[in-house]
Amino acid sequence: MAITKCRECGKEVSDQAAACPHCGILMGPAAKSWARPTKPLGVVLQLAGLGLIGHGILRAGEHGILAGGLPSWIAAAGLLAWGSKAVSRYQGNVPWYKKQWIWVLGFLAAMAALTLLSLSGCMPAFQWAYRADPPTGAEPAADRTLVVLPLSDAREGSNSVMLVMLYVPLCPYGWVDMPVPDPGGLSFREELAKAMADELQASGVFREAFFSPRTQPGDLVLRGNLRSSRFNTKYFSYGLSGYGTILWLIGLPQRTTSNELWIEMQIEDPASKTVLWKGEYRRKKSELSWMYVQDSGFYYHLLLKGVMREAIPSMRAKLSAAAYPVTVGQIPP
After folding, report:
1. Which end of the chain, N or C, is less surrounded by CB atoms within 10 Å?
2. 3-state secondary structure of 313
3. What is this structure's pTM?
């Protein structure tokens, strides 16, 4: 019997030993019998386990934690443990807390926890803040009062939250798609109308412009129709399931967010039943975000600012082109 050094830990060990007594790695014929291609299988099992975590989250939302999520999470834990053992070397007589597969499993659990922590604030809370431009001091194009009514709602579609797709192997991203990002819808439509009234008051196109849910005799009326306010965000997993979180940590983009604002507007004179001006505006804005540089993802105030800066000169030109009132069309009966 001769003494040699272990190829793994470098400590002295008998050349007849089946495994190193210090680190547990197999030696001799036993090492050759263990050297089979298990790592690819282990990675597949790990990805499947991470996918089941996402499936469990989805099921928990539909059927409750015990009935929906727990079975998937138990199966995911088994697949993750099995996969971790498959990608790790054999360490038969090493304490459990030193075994490589335990550390691999812990790493996966940490990645899953980090992903969930990062996504804990992903359900967007609708935010709105708007500041009108300073008053221009220009002469009114129409020496009348304008009442801006709440926008009517013509948005279509239902909100969907599919962030669980982050955990599905080979799926590049999870997403949130919200055609109606404001719960109930009424508040946002009123806030848009109030902001439009503030801009029109500052522009000086009318003697006075203000928001109101009701009209007064003799006032002009601005009616608006909200066609779209779609909010969409995608969180990238780069097809790596829970492993994609690592790429966020090293600086790759975490998500992309887009907002759309599509509004139809017209100014009416109820007394003469004429449409004095009409316009339709559709704008979009998209931004990339990183894990270390975050924003709210809501850009509707910027979109409306662009809409009003385009609409106000058009209103002034139409109302100033001829003696007031200028009839563009008849209000439908």
Report:
1. C
2. helix
3. 0.68
